[in-house]
């Protein structure tokens, strides 16, 4: 409740959230190898194909947060994430060929994957499915504030994505240049989104119970991302 004497100050609450950067997936051994140029083409393709499953479910996750939120001003702002990911609709009712999902499919083709095989998800590992489905279920069943807090991994994402483009261009010159459109378009968008989401969580999670739940939600999201990499790393380490 508001006025909870146990509540953290805004600064201390933000520090706890940002402190979870040590659990983000950039420190996972697979991710370290991916950026160091130590992954084989098949490992890069495995990461892209499995990450598609995550990308495909982001609009459903965001729609769940919108559905659970009673505040029109938040719903109006949050729904922009769905529009960015899914892309615009043409007057004929078909997808406009833009948006995060289409950009990811271009990336898949740039690393040598067959678009049809990415779409039918034949390369998606059970562990990745389990982790992503758990994240969507979390956002459907938990209060919207916790869903928003879980999205705060975007605080740690922009620099990592910008660094990924630099690293991949240096180490994986076999990737077609048009494949980087997703990251190049996403970096400025996620920088803006992260600032808004952080302010939203800091403003609306006022009791200590809400603050602790927000921190736990962000920790859970970090675990989801690392579980995805655990599955990919394990599968590619086997003969």
TrEMBL record:
UniProt-listed Pfam families: TENA_THI-4
Catalysis performed (reactions): 6-(2-amino-2-carboxyethyl)-7,8-dioxo-1,2,3,4,7,8-hexahydroquinoline-2,4-dicarboxylate + 3 O2 = pyrroloquinoline quinone + 2 H2O2 + 2 H2O + H(+)
InterPro entries from the UniProt entry: Haem_Oase-like_multi-hlx, PqqC, PqqC-like, Thiaminase-2/PQQC
E.C. number(s) listed in UniProt: 1.3.3.11
Domain Thiaminase-2/PQQC: 16-230
Keywords: Oxidoreductase, PQQ biosynthesis
Leading EC class: oxidoreductase
Pathway membership, UniProt: Cofactor biosynthesis; pyrroloquinoline quinone biosynthesis; Cofactor biosynthesis; thiamine diphosphate biosynthesis
Family matches, as Gene3D superfamilies: Heme oxygenase-like
Superkingdom of source: Bacteria
MF-aspect GO terms: pyrroloquinoline-quinone synthase activity
HAMAP family documented for this protein: PQQ_syn_PqqC
Function: Ring cyclization and eight-electron oxidation of 3a-(2-amino-2-carboxyethyl)-4,5-dioxo-4,5,6,7,8,9-hexahydroquinoline-7,9-dicarboxylic-acid to PQQ.
Family label: Belongs to the PqqC family.
PANTHER family per the UniProt record, alphabetical: 4-AMINOBENZOATE SYNTHASE, PQQC-LIKE PROTEIN
NCBIfam families recorded: PQQ_syn_pqqC (TIGR02111)
The protein's name: Pyrroloquinoline-quinone synthase
Organism of origin: Phytohabitans maris
